[in-house]
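Subject line: Sequence and fold of a protein, written as structure tokens
Body of memo: The sequence and its backbone structure tokens, given next.
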Amino acid sequence: MTRAPQCYVPPGEVVPIVKGSHVYLIDGSGYIFRAFHALPPLTRPSDGLPVGAVHGFCAMLWKLLGDSKLADRPTHIAVVFDHSAKTFRNDIYDKYKANRPPPPEELVPQFPLIRHAVKAFNVACIEQQGFEADDLIATYARQVVEAGGDVTIISSDKDLMQLIRPGIVMFDGMKNKRIGPDEVVEKFGVPPDKVVDVQSLAGDSTDNVPGVPGIGIKTAAELIKEHDDLDTLLARASEIKQPKRREKLIEFAEQARISRELVRLKQDVPVETPVEQVGVHDPRPDELLAFLRDMEFSTLTRRIAEALGVEPPALPEVSVGASIRERGTSSAGRGATAAATADAAAGTPAAGARELAALAKSVPVDRNAYETVRDAEALARWIGMCRTAGRFAFDTETTSLDAMRAELVGFSLATSPGVACYVPVGHTDGASDLFGGGGLSPGQMPRAEALKQLKPLLEDRSLLKIGQNIKYDALVLKRLGIDIAPIDDTMLLSYVLDGGRGGHGMDDLAERHLHHTCIPFSTVIASAPGAKKADKTFAGVPIEQATAYAAEDADVTLRLWMTLKPRLVAERMTTVYETLERPLLPVIVEMEHHGIKVDRQILSRLSGTFAQRIGALEEEVYGLAGGDRFNLGSPKQLGEFLFDRLKLPGGKKTKTGQWETRAGLLDDLAANEELPDDARRLINTMLEWRQLSKLRSTYTDALPNFVDAETGRIHTSYALAATTTGRLASSDPNLQNIPIRTKEGREIRTAFIAEKGCKLISADYSQIELRVLAHIADIPQLKKAFADGLDIHAMTASEMFGVPVKDMPGEVRRRAKAINFGIIYG
């Protein structure tokens, strides 16, 4: 599921606030937590995604919209959310809400889903950076009442009770209870206009509002009733009879005033969305029912469809236990089926994960059962099956691993284990014409026609598309004008769940989780015409063989998703995947597609300069070598010269009997003060020659070859599941290792340029792993060092090598850096 919009306003005319207007303001953030904690847990049957709070929210919103058809129905309605944790209150008191625990693991992925739900109901969704939802509600409420309208705040939050006055009431949707002045007096012992004073004294442990120690709600109410307001009370604190209470009020008077600023809601927020824009609009049935169907809320979907007077959409066929009992009747699968069915009765996330994994393996992989889709009618039938399923696996077959240059040859779909197809659109018959190319094979849909049918399916945000390394497919499709969303990636699921435990490619995952061996690509590509391996592409693979290979890919991908996705909840990894890994996918696709601009003239000039310097260094090496000429780029010849000809000490041989000439060994030789000056100078010159030669071959000469002919940009590929540390990896070309420590490396970086009127910005976390370590391991010295802005690596080097931080050489600091990170990663 993609990230929800932070603010949504239904399209339509502005509805002015006039006398008789009635505005519903729903405390979205508060209701999410109430729905989560008050209602029983609920997970989506197909993948185990927690959706209990989403269901509760949708049911409440629908009931509210239904009730709003009564006599006091609203003219305007908006759901208001907190934008982020930090607001202006943190500037007043940095410990505000500091002791709040993080939200429950199962709730985190439901936040964006609930925002999507609000949009699906065609209700305004409001949030604004720097302010809490309560402040926006307070501001809107004031504006409405001043314009002659009435406000109903849908919430039970005590912090909003200060707003109640003529024209403003609260309503607890879960208890179906109205909250007015009498209920406020019952809660706080004072009327609404005195609530802020009471809260200023009593404080609030939930939000870490300090208040005055030793004074609770009851005592605070008595004091305010006696002295009328907080300022009068504090001014006359010395007159309080009770000694301890008097001392506390005098000592913590300023703390009480700060608390007042924290609890008093801001009623003059410069709101970005005028209240006139949140008029009531009827839900759009197609969008609302598609969302509910995607959440697999069968009862709620049917109830709302009936109320809207439309046919309910076909719901995904996800009766997992029944499916296993129906399909798992073979003797081979009977044991696993019985165990899975027994697990299902337990009702735990782990049991559900085992059940879906058993279902994924219960149907044998039958390559002969896959369908080749050759015409529009058959493709339309498969698209209908995908829509009915609500989620499906998708895979592309192309002519290249480079997504920016690949041509689409075909695509595959899978809707359930064993049910898959392949749609060929670009296979050639292999026969050569006068120009060396083959014509299209018969029995295929025209590519443009197939894509025209496919585009609405892949861009339908109510349907989940599942892929293996789907970033590649998304990039291929983006070049064809298709933005596939929302997406799940089995490679990323494996990376999150089993990072460091093995490969995350499809073949590895199929063997590990399904005990199935996929058709190797090398086998299928061998059937394509071409004398050399480089000449062969998937376009030349016969369609029958391509169907077995491609449809199997989609089938296996769907089975892997059924096996891996439910484990997120069972192993409490949902937040990592749903808030970190999956949202990054479309961002990376966009980055790769956009690419980065380079100035080829800079690279050409640097290449020429490097070539001249490389030539001069070669001659210098030969001069120092006494006129002996050998191939400086040959480790074998260099080793023989250094250790056989010059007899330098410290030489080491490899297993093949060849002298080692790695950079570290040469660095040690160059630092050996016992060697003759000429020998050390020769080695240093050799190292400089190596460095420049590598810069030239790897960057100044190679980078221009990566510039795309169509875009004029370099489109590197970012791997999301390639490192054990969670970092991205870059390849073709690797843009993460452009040198920066040397003058030449910095010159190469100047070749990467921004478009006219734009700038390139470099940003990086500062020693993020060590900061995490300091927090998790609770190391006071390290935490203080970070808080004070000290250089951790320089501190380590100073302690280990006795070098003052002020005069720290870069090389010494780098050695300490290796030690620090070695502690974390080994």
